[in-house]
Specification:
2 domains, 8% strand
């Protein structure tokens, strides 16, 4: 099940409205609706916040499997994530950060130009 579909199903099962989700995420209801329609990309930070609001572990939203590690005699949970999901999250965040850095560089260049003209 896709992450967005899983979020929507859990939200409905728990009786949480889109308006309540939007309010807790500090976005408009229209923005949250776009997220559930997959018209807006889901960021990692927002995914963590959604898991918190829904009261579920992020692993359940991502369909992760928890395994027990026997290294060193400790029973520490190890999360296994399909390689494709890791790659998708990496690409989405890389694209967002690239745009932010580009915007920052453009603002710095503009400010430098303004200072030179004074």
């Amino acid at each position: 099940m896709k992450i967005i579909n899983k979020i929507k199903a859990i939200r409905k099962d728990k009786g949480i409205s889109q308006e309540a989700m939007a309010m807790n995420l500090e976005i408009s209801q229209a923005a949250y609706t776009k997220l559930e329609r997959n018209e807006t990309k889901l960021t990692v930070d927002r995914l963590y916040k959604i898991a918190e609001i829904l009261g579920v572990k992020i692993e359940s939203l991502l369909n992760l499997e928890l395994e027990s590690s026997q290294q060193g005699g400790n029973d520490e949970p190890v999360i296994t994530l399909p390689l494709q999901q890791i790659e998708n999250l990496y690409r989405e965040n890389k694209e967002i950060y690239g745009k932010l850095i580009q915007s920052k560089d453009e603002q710095i260049a503009l400010l430098q130009k303004l200072l030179e003209n004074k």
